[in-house]
Design a protein that fits this description.
There is one protein chain. This protein has about 250 residues and is of the alpha+beta class. The protein has a domain at about 1-25 and about 90-115 and about 145-245: ATP-grasp fold, B domain (D-amino Acid Aminotransferase, Chain A, domain 1). The chain is built from 9 helices and 9 strands. A hairpin with a 5-residue loop joins strand 8 and strand 9. The longest helix has 18 residues, at about 155-170.
Length: about 250
């Protein structure tokens, strides 16, 4: 669905999709003056995590904004569109799905997590060294690695996928045809919190080019995302219904 790509790129539209689906997401702050706890600050567009930062107060927000302007990472126009949300502490899972319009079924294809620079290196320092050096960590994605989720969490993963597909069908017809991905954090209450979506094949699918544990359970053979897309197209051509899978 070409139309849904704009909903992925614009955070207010993306949030509308998730809220409409009654999916757990971080609380949003409309203005920096409202910051009363740790927040994550993001900017428009796919930056791969560059320029994201954590702040715990309005003062810290302003200090980090000024520092990023000096580095040339952001401009005034970016600040006006800054997305401020509750900081959720937890483990990162990027969950890859495929929605088959032909079968009306959401399939769990695989999961990955991300290596991010410089935060991953920063947290490996002893706490006293982190406090003594003047570094503002970034969250630039540099790689992916495959993961599997605790089995008791899988019902949440399936439910979120189903809810998002239903919400997209209501708001951006025909909805989320084919591959899509959600980026989540799982907190210590074992709650899956969604903080971003990709309405397309996500880069993390390269972690299961010969299939994942989840796609193998579904198909009993190696099934990458690309192969699954090709199979859907082949089924549509052979059995009719090609109009269901394209826009």
């Amino acid at each position: 669905n070409r139309d849904i790509l704009r909903w992925e790129a614009e955070r207010d539209l993306e949030r509308q999709l998730l809220v409409n689906g009654k999916i757990r997401i971080p609380m949003k702050y409309d203005d920096p003056s409202e910051i009363d706890r740790a927040v994550m600050v993001k900017f428009p567009g796919a930056r791969g995590g560059r320029g994201y930062f954590v702040a715990s107060s309005t003062e810290e927000f302003n200090e980090k904004i000024d520092a990023m302007k000096e580095r040339g990472w952001i401009e005034d126009a970016d600040v006006e569109q800054a997305h401020i949300e509750e900081y959720v502490s937890g483990c990162n899972y990027c969950i890859h799905y495929f929605y088959s319009a032909l079968n009306d079924e959401v399939e769990l294809m695989g999961m990955d997590s991300r290596y991010e620079s410089s935060i991953d290196g920063f947290v490996r320092m002893p706490a006293k060294d982190q406090l003594s050096i003047d570094i503002s960590p970034s969250y630039v994605v540099t790689g992916n690695h495959p993961v599997v989720m605790r089995e008791s969490l899988l019902p949440q993963a399936f439910e979120i996928g189903d809810k998002l597909v239903k919400s997209a069908a209501e708001l951006v017809k025909p909805g989320l045809n084919g591959p899509f991905c959600i980026q989540t954090l799982v907190n210590d209450n074992l709650e899956v919190v969604v903080f971003e979506t990709s309405a397309r094949t996500d880069g993390g699918t390269n972690t299961f080019m010969e299939g994942s544990a989840y796609s193998y359970l579904k198909y009993g053979e190696g099934m990458s995302m690309g192969r699954r897309v090709a199979r859907e197209i082949k089924m549509a051509l052979e059995n009719g219904g090609f109009e269901k899978i394209i826009t």
